[in-house]
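pinning this so it doesn't scroll away 📌
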Amino acid sequence: MHDDVLLTVPDVMARLKLGRSKVYDLIRSRRLPSITIGRCRRIPAWAVREYITNELEAAA
């Protein structure tokens, strides 16, 4: 996957198997970086990978 790929909230929901509210909670708490383009929220693919890595390290 390329680092410049931007994912939608539904994309992130599917990848992390989380609900919409949880994804927005992660964005709001700044645990998952995002950008807003107009009225659309986009999450960089690298941010999702980094989130997964951080969660795995915290669980270890």
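📌 and the second one:
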Amino acid sequence: LALELARHNVRTLVVERSRAALTRPKVDWLSTRSMALLDQLGLGQPIRDRAARLADATDLLWTIGLDQPPVLAWQQPAAGGTRIPGVALEQLARTAVRAHPLIDIREGWNSVDLRREPTGVVATLADADTGRYHTVRARYLAGCDGADSTVRRCLRIALDDAPTDTGYCTVYFRSSDELLRRSCSAFATVSAPGVTLVSHDSAGTWSAVLGGPADEPLTDPMALVRRRIGAPVEVDQVVAVVQREGAFPIASTYRKGAAYLVGDAAHPFYPAYHHAGDITLADAAELAGTLAAALATAAAGEPPDGYGSVRRPVALVVRELCTARLQLERRFARLCAAGLSRDRLAGILRREMWQAGGPAVHFGQWCDPEPEGEGEAVTAG
């Protein structure tokens, strides 16, 4: 957002709680549209240089078990987007922000409170190094502070949940196990026992997204992963475990006064579908244009309200597609347990996958009028 505002010649103060990119190895899928936005910021080529270069970097597999060929493989054309480790993406963006003359970044600072005033917003910031508090007045404030947003809490903006329960646990781990490399090198593998495995890179970095109660104690997360996978995979390191309860929540409003919500602060979605990067970038581009136009006006009038009316409906549509996709995954697991043949399973997936927004959600192209392809059934040879 700061880089996009700078492109409009707007100065910004960025408050960043961490001093370095997060170590949790998430992965981002960036659509062609997102890459076009990043090209305008000078980040497109550096991102392409760091992107994953795997033959099946865009495949989405549905499988009964890792010891069998997939029931269905949906293949996104390689030119359709870019897959990059989230840490690399954050490092590139942070470096660009640090170097930009119109951006003042305060790393190691936290936003702890804010209040709205007739002429803007007053934020209270804490310097983690010194323990000192600072008060900053601004005409506009954008909360880009994630699913547990302090800005959203201070604004007392509620989250509206979808009716489908989506409690989940995500286990991030590193493994050089040959079974994983051989069977799950695709971008994501949906396995019937109730786990979605995501391959982050060619270096053996993975995440396993497990549905279930988010408050269930996990003394041995990899034991649960192995049980869901149905194979004794070897693990070199468990990097992080994240449990969260929710049902595709979306903020009831994206603005209060001159304060706005962006990205996960407005819509903390399910981690297995990898559309968050696309939606967040589009949020940032829309808000930057809106605020830049308002700031170009000499008089300080009512804060512009068009951003939320444009971006919140997008989040609502994506939530509907995500919910349908999650229901399809659960139905796939039930049908596998019922003993349906591979051919019948593949037929059901072909018929329902696009209706459920599967590829569209997964690859951030929910607005395409027709699918790029219906997928290819894979049978044992």
